[in-house]
Amino acid sequence: MPYYTFVEEKDVMLSVIKKILTGIVQNWPDNTDAVSGSAPGPWYGVDLDGTLAVWDENSTLSRIGAPIPSIVDMVLRMVDNGIRVKIFTARACDPAQIPKIQAWMNQHGLPGLEITNVKDYYMERLYDDRAIRVERNTGRIL
Q1: Integer CA distances (angstroms), 121 to 43, 69, 126, 139, in order
Q2: What is the pTM for the complete model shown?
Q3: Per-residue CA distances from 38 to 27, 64, 102 (Å)
Q4: Separation between Cα atoms, residue 44 and residue 83, nearest integer Å
Q5: Torsion angles phi and psi, residue 66, rounded to 5
Q6: Which of 64, 55, 47, 56 has the alpha carbon at shortest distance from 131?
Q7: Which residue, among 64, 77, 60, 58, has the nearest Cα to 127 in the 3D structure?
Q8: Sheet holding 43-47, edge to edge
Q9: What is the C-alpha separation between 106 and 99, in angstroms, rounded?
Q10: Are 54 and 66 in contact (CB under 8 A)?
Q11: Each residue's pLDDT tens digit, 64-119
């Protein structure tokens, strides 16, 4: 069995780490959405629970609440006007939720919108019941 010095072990470890990191960088998606795999471009996010669908004391992750008509209408108008809309929801971190959200959209007359829980540089606007607006570059809460 060969005897390695501490320096040799460190060099081997650094070589392995370099190979791993190189593989990650080479296989990194080019600004694509982690859930939908879509190409980059401007988009508006609309939260699901509590914004697009009712979320109340009876709500669970097993079912999505009733649609909120005014937000459904707003989303449909945005899509009709060529605005890219994504459902922006924490549910998307669980792959099993994606088909449920797609079925819910289909059931309630929404087109097959992208679904994500990833905020990127292309998101221009977010509609969300939990957000608190902060004035850009000032830190002032509006």
Answers
A1: 10, 29, 12, 19
A2: 0.72
A3: 16, 24, 16
A4: 7
A5: -65, 150
A6: 47
A7: 77
A8: 114-116, 85-88, 43-47, 123-127
A9: 10
A10: yes
A11: 999 999 999 999 999 999 999 999 999 999 999 999 999 999 999 999 999 999 99
